[in-house]
Amino acid sequence: MSSHSYEVALHAEFFTKDLKPILNRITVHSDSSQPFRSREVVFEPLDAQIQRDSGAEPILLRARKELSDPKAPWELYSYLKPESVRVHPEATVRPWTTCQVVGDALSFAAALGYVQKSQIYKSGYAFRRGPLLILMAQQEMLDPKTQLPIPPHADTLWEVEVKTAHPIRNTQETPLSGAINAVLEIQLLMKGLLDLRRKDV
């Protein structure tokens, strides 16, 4: 058994015209739902280019904050490369490390030797279903002058992530197969409305 913790996920995209039926179907099959708005800052190591030149893919560090809750802490997390499609053809399974940060996560990341690469603001809906988190969101545009977010265009694609809410260790008590089956259940529930699939990023 591996010592890693994992995230299991499926992804999809759709146009705003399909929002209502998709929203209705996910709501019916969820335990809870709420609007959310988040900011995510992506960092790369100072030597990222050197790593790329030598053929290695640098590990990115991400800092995420829930903006709808003023008291929400920053969460720092990092993904490793997804497991091969031969091992897990049905869903994206990737090692996932996460920790909460009290105070300024951006300065903390800089102190670890990381530089900011990009930032993303998203707004949409968050659903919980058992061990899963379902995020349905549009990326907000960044104003080039102020670097502040502006609402998404009407034709901005909606992105859907169906994933495990917390990192999972592949043990006898919590086998990865249980999490994979849970996301595949959502894939089946959404069939005909949403094409949830594995994504390698």
From TrEMBL:
Q: Provide a GO biological process annotation.
A: termination of RNA polymerase II transcription
This protein's species is Agrocybe pediades
As for subcellular location, the record says: Nucleus
Query: What are the protein's UniProt keywords?
Result: Nucleus, Transcription, Transcription regulation
Name the principal localization, coarsely classed. Answer: nucleus
> MF terms per GO, please?
transcription coregulator activity
Any one cellular-component term (Gene Ontology): core mediator complex
Q: Does the keyword Transcription apply?
A: yes
Protein name as annotated: Mediator of RNA polymerase II transcription subunit 18
- The organism's place on the tree of life at top rank: Eukaryota
Q: Does the keyword DNA-binding apply?
A: no
Q: Which family does it belong to?
A: Belongs to the Mediator complex subunit 18 family.
